[in-house]
Amino acid sequence: MPTSAVIESQPLTTYSNQTWISCDQTETAPNKWGYQRCVTYQVKNQDSKDYQKVLDVHEDVQVIDENIDAPLHTSDSSTNADGEFLDGLVLLGNSANAIPANACSILKQTITVTGNKSPIRVNCLRFGSTDVTITDVTLNPSQCSKPTYQCN
Amino acid sequence: MMKTASTIMILGALVTLASPAFANSRGVSNNHVPAIHIETFGAHNALYLISEKANVPIGVEAIFDYKMEPTIDFDFPGGTVADLLNMFVSQASDYRWVEDTGIIHVFWNSTHLPIADVMLSYPGAENKTRQQIWDDIDKRPEVIAWLNANHCERNELFMGKEFRAHNGPISIKAGSMTLAQLLDQVAIKSGENYWAIVQSPAGQKCQIRISVW
Questions:
Q1: Which chain B residues have a beta carbon less than 8 Å from that of A68?
Q2: Rounded to 5 degrees, what angle do the CA atoms B66, B72, B76 make?
Q3: Which residues span the domain enclosing A86?
Q4: What is the ipTM of this complex?
Q5: The domain that contains A33 carries what CATH number?
Q6: By a Cβ cutoff of 8 Å, what residues of chain B touch chain A?
Q7: Measured between alpha carbons, how far is B113 from A124 in angstroms, rounded to an integer?
């Protein structure tokens, strides 16, 4: 059964009055400032072997703390036949100063897939002004909470 | 989320609602919702989760002050949408909800944000996506005039997933309507089920987010 998900790659793209292109290249938006990290996951089975099937991927997101008004939104997706899926971690604005220098948004992201009711991955995501950091808290999801993770 | 009387006076342009929170007994507030867990920082984030998990259209008018925002955390045992919203309000006491036709409106401190009441001579939308209709709001002269007159600017941040779903073409008839009424139609017809107008707190540079996601 699908049991876990590991990050295969997570390239960062920054935008400065440029057209944003989503990680899967299905969406664009002109004149954006900010960044995008395209995270590719590989689903693994209980033996840590690649789980190579198409699966529905569902995410639940919880805001832990934030000092910017970045509206919460979730999106479901699916893996490819190799058991890989993409997650675009994005923070964009419409002007150079839309994202303040001290921007902070901390989200707890819980990822589940068909075939396993338990999460295969729980991340603590910290969005800053120029990048997002991903901390795997799957083994201890309650770790992604205040005061361990909070905006100053 | 304590707000002083002086803060409310600074927000003098806000219009107080006559009736804070009473449900229409036969509307969406009477729909049944299964047991759900809501846990998130920020009242408007919680309302987004409520609209998504309870499948109920919600429009929100709020002031966002991260220093004052509550963390909402409750287990809803199941019941009506009204029960669920009352449970939300029990943890976000500055918010009130009312039911309108097919949608729940939630207000911070029982007030409409003035921009939500701006009357539009809307030219109509024919087979446009939610994103296209939202993009067009920037071009409405009434919205531009209000922002200029009130020294406010739009400021939306995007996390890249806003238009992934519920972005099929919809149509909206031309006519006079408030911005809130336009957003109601977009939220309901698209199936996104959620809109928000969020303004910066009094005393700060006036920034407004208008989102249909």
A1: 66, 157
A2: 160
A3: 2-143
A4: 0.91
A5: 2.60.40
A6: 39-42, 44-45, 48-49, 52, 64, 66, 154-165, 196, 198, 209, 211, 213
A7: 34
